[in-house]
Amino acid sequence: MTPRIEVSAIDCLTLRLFDTIDERNMPWLLAASRRIATLFGPALVDLVPSYTTLMVHYDLGLLSSTQAHACLARAVDGLEAAQESGGALHRVPVWYDPAVGPELELIARRAELSVQQVVERHCAHEYQVFALGFAPGFAFMGLVEECLATPRLSTPRKRVAAGSVGIADRQTAAYPVVSPGGWNLIGRTPVKLFDYQREGYSLVRPGDRVRFEPIDRDDFLRLGGDDTPQAVIEGLAA
Amino acid sequence: MSAMTVDYSRSLALLQDDGRFGVRHLGVTQGGAFDWISMYWANWLLGNALDAPVIEITLGGLRLVCERDACLALAGADLQASLDDQPLAPWRSFSVRRGQVLTFRQPRTGARAYLAAPGGFEGETVLGSLATVVREGLGGLHGDGQPLREGDRLDWPGQGGALCQVPKSRVSDLTTERPLDLVVGAQIGEFAGQSLFDAFNSEWTVDSRSDRMGVRLTGPQLRSRMSGIVSEGVPLGAVQVPPDGQPIVLLNDRQTIGGYPRLGALTPEAVARLGQCLPGARLRLRPVAQRTAELAHQRLLAHWH
Fold first, then answer.
1. Do A9 and B185 touch (CB under 8 A)?
2. DSSP string covering B249-299, please?
């Protein structure tokens, strides 16, 4: 790891720690995040973690660019990876079914597995939350097993149901609200992923871990899930 | 009783302030007034906090009925505003009486006008800001990210205000005769030499495929050694270049992370000026160093002190 400090804007610096996506990046990114938060203090406007980088947006009224560079250099000096794998572990229930996961069977066919095996493999791992983006509370997670990796749909859907769980290449994610989207849908969670009236707003944060757990339709409904089929959400079926 | 009612809204009228901060790691965008300089002046005219909530009126098509006597202020684009039948010039405060109708028709110069009220317009603060972000369903009058609509009732907490104008020398130049400053970013070395020359020596045209997420520029095709990068945080004003070689300037409502190589990022002043460009406008980009931009920005902020 050779940290690099890069200029991104008049008031933004990017700390580049890695070049490729890897689950082992996260403890380093978490450790650097904590140091940056402490060192920048009230001058930190926003800190945006992603797979290999941290973007630091600081308050120009409180720090000059020279001071910000120095502060960021101090944050990486002698940096060590966070000891624990970091972040919280969330168990997220998912109803895996073709009605709410239209690509479930496609992924099974591509992997030469049964639908049941696809579900088992998707649930067999703790995923790292690499970054949140695209929409509030939308967490990019991974990595899913190579055999489940599936490229995005060539034409994104105009409407993906809230709670939909999908796969794109070796990443997995859940849509917090109805939105357009091109991920391969395999199921739906009844859990509310983003709620601005809740403490902390987002269920998961960068550096957290997520394990999906299969539930049946009854449990899904009992937990408050909406079982409107994806085809109806898209207006493809009545 | 409210102070003002939306009689009709045919384009985009949004409650905006400085934007939402401290939540970008959760995927929540920044939002906020696109031409923040005009927002500051509109608030300055009334003695408000410079980032007090204002109405950002894009292209016109808005009619408001005043329900109470008040002093309001207008800055930014000239959208052929009128109070009843009297033309209303921007960059000044003005009195309204109960029953008068405030109309914004269509752009004469610029694209976005900013209307301020004493103490700032009231709305629902969501995640520390009432900036309206339609895509995220956050902020605005009701907190659900919806633009102002017919029948919406607006109010403000303050009173009074004096009739005054923005000093002539401070009125924003809404043309693009001066180039837009771009703070050169670290990935600039990945662009081919000819592309760098083209980026800063050609005229760019503002494309009609533009909104509060981003403004597309058309012109010479720019080539980068990188076609895509691992997604990373993107700042306000970032100029990213997708594989088609036509830059997109990422704005207030952009996604928080992105995966295209970037030339750098426009300065806040340049972003504000871009906010006044209509599709078809021509502009030039000028590379500046971070430190140079910082000093220029400090000089700009001194206008309000």
1. yes
2. EE-TT--SEE-S-EEEEE-HHHHHHHTTPPTT-EE-EEEE-HHHHHHHHHH
